[in-house]
């Protein structure tokens, strides 16, 4: 998995190649973390099964923002019912760290704070 970053630092796509069939796909970074244990748990705590969502519509609650290019780090976040989950993603698509803030400690995020819609 390798990231491709647009000049505006807001559009990040991961390129993935299947080792079996050699097919490739470019996708939003959100898809690289959608099955991470912290994400599945976060959605489960809100009565949702994130793994049942179609890949072409992960939801408008997701955001992505490139934090650094050296070392490369992308912030992928989601917010449900005021609770916020932030994942720090490496260039290879793995989650380096994550942070969860409940509604009483999480501030309402704005697009300018976290980034653009992941699904966009």
UniProtKB/TrEMBL annotation:
Pfam families: DUF7351. Residues 7-95 form the DUF7351 domain. Residues 96-120 are annotated as: Disordered. This is DUF7351 domain-containing protein. It comes from Halovenus salina.
């Amino acid at each position: 998995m390798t990231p491709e970053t647009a000049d505006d630092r807001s559009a990040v796509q991961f390129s993935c190649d299947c080792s079996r069939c050699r097919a490739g796909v470019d996708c939003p970074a959100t898809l690289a973390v959608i099955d991470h244990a912290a994400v599945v748990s976060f959605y489960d705590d809100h009565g949702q099964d994130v793994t049942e969502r179609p890949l072409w519509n992960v939801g408008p609650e997701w955001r992505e923002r490139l934090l650094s290019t050296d070392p490369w780090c992308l912030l992928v976040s989601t917010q449900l019912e005021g609770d916020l989950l932030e994942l720090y993603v490496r260039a290879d698509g793995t989650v380096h760290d994550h942070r969860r803030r409940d509604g009483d400690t999480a501030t309402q995020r704005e697009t300018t704070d976290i980034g653009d819609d992941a699904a966009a």
